[in-house]
């Protein structure tokens, strides 16, 4: 199994459970690992056969910027579902973090894995 990844994709969005968090955009950071078979793209040197991380990033940004979730859990599940459905990704691991959201911690958030890992 090969992995195409995106690290520390920073997006501004409304997220959080507190009143002040409903009024100001905060930064969330996305790390994403996606199962892929990169061999055909490598053999042909053709983006048509690649899992295009630029296209995935643009889709995630569009979704997150237009959302105003309360919980990081909701946003993480939505991102995982759209990446799997729209880019035909069989398995992914997603870390969604809120830098600076908790005093004393660099960031907080969660890590989820969805789908089945190909052999
Ligand atoms: N498991 C979670 N815990 C908390 C969340 C969350 O989204 N998931 N959110 C908050 C607040 O919005 C926090 O980020 C503000 O500092 C608290 N706990």
UniProtKB/TrEMBL annotation:
One BP annotation, GO: folic acid biosynthetic process
GO molecular function: dihydroneopterin aldolase activity; isomerase activity
Protein name as it appears in the record: 7,8-dihydroneopterin aldolase
SUPFAM superfamilies the record matches: Tetrahydrobiopterin biosynthesis enzymes-like
Family designation: Belongs to the DHNA family.
Name of the encoding gene: folB
Domain Dihydroneopterin aldolase/epimerase intervals: 4-114
Keyword Membrane applies: no
Natural source organism: Gilvimarinus xylanilyticus
């Amino acid at each position: 199994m090969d992995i195409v990844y995106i690290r520390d994709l920073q997006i501004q969005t409304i997220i959080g459970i507190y009143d002040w968090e409903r009024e100001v955009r905060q930064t969330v950071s996305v790390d994403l690992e996606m199962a892929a078979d990169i061999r055909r793209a490598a053999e042909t040197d053709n983006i048509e056969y690649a899992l295009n991380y630029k296209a995935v990033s643009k889709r995630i940004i569009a979704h997150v910027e237009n959302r105003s979730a309360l919980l990081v859990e909701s946003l993480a599940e939505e991102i995982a579902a759209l990446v799997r459905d729209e880019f035909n990704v069989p398995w992914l691991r997603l870390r969604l973090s809120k830098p600076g959201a908790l005093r004393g911690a660099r960031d907080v958030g969660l890590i989820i894995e969805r789908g089945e890992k190909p052999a």
